[in-house]
């Protein structure tokens, strides 16, 4: 019989989240989370259960009871005859659940909750992505990337990219502050340096990301839509 602990362990494995990581997100001790995973304690309380589901990107119903869609944004399976044109929901990135404390996205004028596309649009408009389930929509914030995009514009981000393997525009955090900037790999005598570069160069200077910083690549920006008022 599949129990809460089994679904929790499965979701943690799929998202590469350790017991220590989840304990930090929930504000619990390692031992308390381990007891749940070992079946020596019941499910988390309602608040920690909701936090765990959000962080592991699974639905609350699936984690609690094993019912409904497993992943947030997943649709129920359609009959084989109707699967070819099934719509895909690209969900909003949950900044509030990030790190368990919330990710600060400055000057964000509201959020775009999701994008709904069909498979044909995805195949013809997005050249390369890790998996459809890893795509999310981030609402543009701040003015550091103007004129590439404006605050409030939708950005399509691939959460499956979590390292800077080549120069591109990334969605990342330093401490609990979110950024969208071009990241450039610069070789130096002391090793590789990652430089964060804004499009709005007149107002924002580039800065280097060092090993001592609490830095995490959340995803790579694949596409942006730039609004223009008439």
TrEMBL record:
Listed name of the protein: Transcriptional regulator
Source organism per UniProt: Castellaniella denitrificans
Domain named Peptidase S24/S26A/S26B/S26C: residues: 112-221
InterPro entries: Lambda_DNA-bd_dom_sf, LexA-like, LexA/Signal_pep-like_sf, Peptidase_S24_S26A/B/C
Keyword Transcription on entry: yes
Highest taxon of the lineage: Bacteria
Any Pfam family: Peptidase_S24
UniProt keyword list: DNA-binding, Transcription, Transcription regulation
């Amino acid at each position: 019989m599949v129990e809460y602990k089994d679904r929790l362990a499965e979701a943690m494995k799929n998202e590469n989240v350790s017991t220590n990581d989840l304990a930090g997100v929930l504000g619990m001790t390692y031992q308390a989370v381990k007891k749940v995973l070992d079946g020596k304690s019941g499910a988390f309380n309602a608040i920690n259960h909701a936090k765990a589901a959000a962080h592991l990107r699974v639905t609350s119903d699936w984690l609690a009871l094993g019912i409904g869609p497993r992943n947030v944004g997943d649709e129920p399976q359609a009959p084989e005859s109707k699967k070819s044109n099934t719509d895909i929901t690209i969900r909003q990135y949950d900044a509030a659940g990030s790190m368990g404390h919330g990710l600060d996205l400055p000057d964000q004028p509201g959020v775009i909750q999701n994008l709904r596309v069909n498979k044909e649009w995805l195949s013809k408009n997005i050249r390369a992505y890790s998996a459809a389930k890893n795509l999310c929509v981030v609402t543009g914030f701040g003015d550091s990337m103007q004129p590439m995009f404006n605050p409030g514009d939708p950005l399509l981000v691939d959460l499956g990219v979590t390292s800077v393997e080549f120069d591109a525009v990334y969605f990342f955090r330093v401490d609990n502050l979110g950024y969208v900037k071009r990241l450039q790999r610069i070789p130096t005598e002391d090793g590789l340096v990652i430089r964060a570069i804004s499009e709005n160069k007149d107002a924002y200077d580039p800065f280097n990301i060092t090993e001592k910083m609490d830095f995490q690549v959340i995803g790579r920006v694949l596409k942006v839509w730039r609004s223009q008022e008439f």
